[in-house]
Design goal:
This protein folds into 5 domains: 48-198, GHMP Kinase, N-terminal domain (Ribosomal Protein S5, domain 2, 2-Layer Sandwich); 286-361, Arc Repressor Mutant, subunit A (Orthogonal Bundle), CATH 1.10.10; 376-443 and 451-597, GHMP Kinase, N-terminal domain (Ribosomal Protein S5, domain 2, 2-Layer Sandwich); 613-675, Ribosomal Protein S8, Chain: A, domain 1 (2-Layer Sandwich), CATH 3.30.1370.10; 688-775, Beta Barrel (OB fold (Dihydrolipoamide Acetyltransferase, E2P)). The longest helix is centred in the N-terminal third of the chain and has 29 residues, at 243-271. It contains 18 helices and 30 strands. The strands form 6 sheets. An 8-stranded antiparallel beta sheet has the order 9-8-10-11-22-21-19-20, sandwiched between helices. Strands 1-2-3-4-5-7-6 form a 7-stranded mixed beta sheet. Strand 19 (513-523) and strand 20 form a beta hairpin. It starts with 5 loop residues before the first strand and ends with a helix. Helix 1 runs antiparallel to helix 2 (35-45) and helix 16 packs antiparallel against helix 17 (661-675). It is α+β, with helices and mostly antiparallel strands and 776 residues long. One of its GO terms (cellular component) is mitochondrion.
């Protein structure tokens, strides 16, 4: 069986031959004392280390190192087609006093890589865009689970787009380049991982689809996996894909990832650095750990078994035990005990106790079974001025959703690089998610939206976008404000958002809901590769997310799946657990939709008074100038006085958007005033009329056929049989009366077609020419 990758070595010979040749040259130069020439010799004969991974659709992923950014701890360049991404990683040698891995991933879209110039005022890259933040989170979630416990050194991963061809999306390429950079570096990391994008076109799975293929796909799935077919990260947006097709896509994606992993391992074998040794910053002694356990374990068990506790009371009870344990240990040891170490020991004991009780009692801390949902209540149409609104309550998670409908001009415009990579120019449906600090009884500063809020909002938007009608005439802004949070607020946003959309009269194909599945796993003898036992938890609490191993969020309708995001905290999840989690989430979301349907089960048909209105009006070409006004003054007046926006669709067709029916009626009255004219006499085609010159121009004269008429142009070419460069050559002045013939109106512009030339016969023209010659 042929290897799924190809290792490119040095020019002209095999790896062993090249090594022997270079060794002999080094030896020779060393004897002669000219080591500087050896370095030049070796550099000039070495090719860039590179591996290639062919995919089933014929594409090739190329991974290389050793050419760029050699001061970094690790650097790798990944290429697919003409899209190239360089990823560097650097980690400090001293640990930081942090209880989590201080990993920062920066993905920036470079306009220069796409041959474009930024369109902002400074014409340079400024702050990160939403697309950049979401891609950074995607890469972060693929890398973070594989860092070893206790490694707290600040680590930065930077993704630098070298070239973007507009066909192959650089986000998944960046995950593979980041995996290679970390694997080749000396940074402790239990990788590598491989990542692929999976599409589903014409009932066939497509690996790493192009932009055009993705536009025809009903699935956009990103799979990150590590060795032994263990899933590290899942992110998906789907057009209501069936469950069996979705499972097939995941299995295929995990299988393709193994080829990338093998290639990176081969690259590491020959060119990787030895991993650095490290020691955790907080290393509790066995005596301190045992003391903390003896003081706290029994009391923690009582708290976690007390089903009467809610989020706040449980947190307060655990905090009281922590404070008491710290105070007691300060006086129990002869030497001073570091408070941070005691706190770390308490957190470990608390987590171990919480997890063990799930296996012992088979009941969760709030008294529910593993598959049981929290109590759900729904309300819609909460406030009259809103186009649509809903309040979704699930346990102690409460979300308030509103829908605002506006004109098509309010659609969200994409930046040039996002347009190039995604093919999306604007969005007429978007969701904004807000998580204020009071939702968790905290005090915090309100400022620009954070990465977490952007990520949760984007996930909820993915869950709802496939059910919203694409030909809806308005721009839809859905806002979600989390009022209370005790786990899974993003999936509550999907539920509340679906109800708010139906309340606003937005046509949706079917109601959508979302739910989060948690995981408590157990490994034998600290073996992270073989899971001994596990428990899946449906509709998890905040504490179950914090203490558990997974936050598996899935959204969809009763028919299929629309979005998925799996945040996995352990170094890989077996496929069987992924399949089981999808099945439990599918069953749970169907139950949630049944509960939602008791409040509102279809789009509201009866219109609200404040709903916006959109109409089309056809303006004849000859009246277009009156309709628009000088410099568009009439349209500006409509906007100021009534709030109505007018957009030209075609030459004679205009779209009128009004925020409500009252504004539309007022706008129609103004439009009638713009277009009103006195009764015009009917002009006969081919008839001859006496025209009065109102203005003399370089290109002709402006004439009127009756007093109330707007002047029409009689062009120089229609003034005389002879060629006329200016009307003054014929002695025409303002106020003169001339005979013209009427040929109707131009069907496109609506302007009158007049001619004086046709009234002058050829004989008169010849006679006039003779008179001119005699006089000369």
């Amino acid at each position: 069986m042929a290897a799924p990758y190809r290792l490119k070595l040095w020019r002209g010979c095999s790896f062993a031959e090249n090594t022997t040749s270079l060794f002999n040259e080094y030896l020779l130069k060393y004897i002669t004392g000219n080591l500087r020439q050896v370095k030049r010799f070796s550099d000039s004969n070495k090719r860039i280390p590179q591996v290639e991974v062919p995919f089933s659709n014929g594409k090739i992923l190329s991974l290389s190192t050793g050419k760029y950014a050699r001061f970094a701890d690790g650097c790798a360049v990944a290429e697919v087609g003409d899209t190239s991404v360089m990823v560097t990683t650097v980690s400090k040698t001293k640990p930081s006093p942090s209880s989590f891995i201080p990993l920062v991933v920066d993905y920036r879209q470079k306009a220069a890589a796409a041959g474009r110039i930024p369109t902002n005022f400074l014409r340079r890259e400024l702050g990160p865009t939403e697309k950049e933040i979401l891609t950074s989170r995607l890469i972060d979630r693929s890398l973070r689970p594989l860092f070893p416990d206790g490694y707290n050194c600040e680590t930065q991963v930077m993704c630098n787009l070298l070239a973007v061809d507009g066909v192959n999306d650089p986000d998944v390429i960046s995950i593979n380049a980041a995996s290679a950079a970390l694997t080749l570096s000396d940074i402790p990391w239990n990788g590598p991982v491989g990542a692929v994008r999976v599409g589903f076109c014409n009932n066939e799975v497509v690996i790493n689809p192009t932009r055009r293929e993705q536009s025809e796909s009903i699935l956009n799935l990103v799979v990150s996996a590590t060795r032994h077919n263990l899933v590290v990260m899942l992110e998906a947006a789907a057009d209501n894909i069936l469950q069996q097709d979705f499972l097939k896509a995941i299995k295929t994606g995990v299988k393709e990832c193994q080829n990338i992993i093998q290639a990176i391992q081969q690259l590491q074998k020959h060119y990787g650095k030895a991993k650095r040794e490290f020691e955790p910053l907080l290393i509790p002694s066995a005596a301190v750990m045992e003391a903390v356990r003896s003081f706290s374990e029994i009391r923690l068990r009582e708290i976690f078994r007390d089903h009467a506790h809610d989020k706040l009371s449980r947190d307060m009870a655990v905090s009281a035990v922590r404070t008491d344990v710290v105070d007691k240990l300060k006086h129990s040891f002869d030497e001073a005990v570091d408070v941070n170490i005691v706190t770390e020991c308490f957190n470990r004991v608390s987590k171990e106790t919480f997890r063990s009780l799930v296996f012992e009692d088979n009941i969760r801390c709030d008294g529910r079974s593993m598959e049981e949902l929290r109590k759900i209540s729904c309300q819609v149409d909460l406030y009259k001025p809103l186009h649509g609104s809903s309040l979704f309550q699930r346990g102690q998670t409460q979300v308030f959703c509103t829908v605002a409908l506006d004109s098509p001009e309010s659609a969200m415009k994409m930046d040039p690089v996002t347009m190039l990579t995604s093919g999306l120019k604007e969005k007429n449906f978007f969701l904004h998610y807000e998580f204020p600090p009071y939702a968790t009884k905290e005090v915090g500063r309100i400022g620009p939206v954070g990465r977490r809020e952007l990520g949760h909002g984007a996930l909820a938007e993915k869950g709802l976008r496939p059910v919203v009608s694409s030909d809806f005439p308005f721009t839809i802004r859905l806002t979600s404000e989390v009022l209370e949070s005790n786990g899974s607020s993003s999936m509550a946003t999907v539920c509340g958002g679906s109800l708010a959309l139906m309340d606003a009269g937005v046509p949706i194909s079917s109601p959508a809901a979302g739910v989060a599945i948690g995981l408590i796993s157990r490994y034998a003898h600290n073996d992270t590769k073989h899971m001994e036992d596990y428990k899946l938890l449906t509709d998890i609490l905040g504490i179950e997310d914090y203490m558990g191993d997974m936050d598996f969020k899935l959204a969809g309708t009763k028919k299929g799946i629309t979005a998925l995001q799996a945040d996995i905290k352990i170094p890989g999840l077996p496929l069987r657990v992924v399949m089981e989690a999808i099945q439990e989430a599918t069953d749970a979301k169907s139950k949630i939709i049944d509960i939602m349907n008791e409040t509102l089960n279809r789009t509201r048909k009866q219109k609200k008074e404040n709903w916006p209105i959109s109409e089309k009006v056809e303006v004849p070409p000859q009246k277009r100038a009156k309709f628009l006004g000088l410099g568009g003054s009439n349209l500006k007046r409509l906007m100021v006085e009534t709030g109505v926006q007018v957009t030209q669709i075609e030459d004679s067709m205009f779209s009128i958007f009004a925020p409500n029916q009252t504004a539309m009626n007022e706008a129609k009255e103004l439009i009638d005033q713009f277009l009103i004219t006195e009764r015009e006499p009917e002009l006969e085609f081919g008839a001859i009329y006496t025209a009065k010159i109102a203005e003399v121009r370089d290109i002709g004269v402006m004439v009127t056929l009756y007093p109330t008429m707007n002047p029409a142009l009689l062009h120089n070419s229609q003034l005389d049989q002879r060629k006329v460069n200016h009307p003054s050559a014929l002695g025409l002045e303002v106020g003169d009366e001339i005979q013209v013939k009427y040929f109707g109106r131009d069907p496109v512009s609506g302007l009158m077609r007049l001619s004086r030339k046709v009234l002058q016969g050829p004989a008169s023209a010849v006679l006039r020419n003779l008179n001119d010659k005699c006089s000369s």
